[in-house]
Amino acid sequence: MAELLAGAGILDVDVDDAVADEHVRSSAYQRVVSVTTSSRSRIRDRAIVATILRDPVELVSKTAVVALVDKIATKATGPAEFRQWSAELLPEIDQLKTEGFREFIRRRVHDWLFYLSIEDGHVPTPAELAKVTDWMQRVLAEHSASSAVLALVAESGSRKKIRNIAKNRAGSRKPGTQ
Fold first, then answer.
1. What is the pLDDT of residue 25?
2. For residues 13 and 40, is the Cβ–Cβ distance under 8 A?
């Protein structure tokens, strides 16, 4: 823990408190994730994930890794960059004993690859949309700038609420916009 915090330049966390209290550790991990994602270099990411995943409380480590995945995905220049980055990290995920946590992180990576491919110009099919989580479908419904994607989610979204969000956003867009 001390090495992880020092490597991120976080010196104001009491290491003994962090070791003893999962809430303090969780907060410290979120700060490490924030510092890590603000760096241009991705060289240390795998080692940071490996260290976080050694936490005795798997939910704490899973939450921190998901936050890292989310933040890196939003900074990625495209699906190829994110695919390469995540491929280097995914072997570390096997440290988690809980299959559900491993699967959650893998699905989150898949969701972000889907999102980034859309941002890169891909218009998905209903079958492709059905393979992403409800969470990602809602992200698309709430944030997509593509009228074709909004129309797809409005028609084929997995939940009525998701379909309605997309339908309302599609209806409020000016005709002729992408």
1. 95
2. no
Using 70 as the pLDDT threshold, list the residues of the chain that sit under it.
Answer: 173-178
Q: Is residue 29 within 8 Å of residue 58, measured between CB atoms? A: no
Q: How far apart are the C-alpha atoms of 89 and 82, rounded to whole Å?
A: 11
Full 3-state SS string of 46-57: HHHHHHHCCCCC
DSSP letter for 81, please.
H
Contact assessment for residue 53 and residue 93, using Cβ atoms and an 8 Å cutoff: yes
Whole-number pLDDT of residue 177? 47
50 CB contacts (<8 Å, ≥6 apart)? 92, 95
Spatial separation of the C-alpha atoms in residues 25 and 4, rounded to whole Å: 11
First to last CA, the chain: 47
The whole-angstrom separation of Cα 110 and Cα 105 is 9
Asked if residues 90 and 109 have their Cβ atoms less than 8 Å apart, the reply is yes
Three-state secondary structure readout of 139-176: HHHHHCCCHHHHHHHHHHCCCHHHHHHHHHHHHHCCCC
Q: CA 33, CA 16: separation in Å to the nearest integer? A: 20
Q: 148: alpha, beta or left, given left = phi > 0 and alpha = psi -120 to 50?
A: alpha
Give CA–CA dist 34/78, Å, rounded. 20
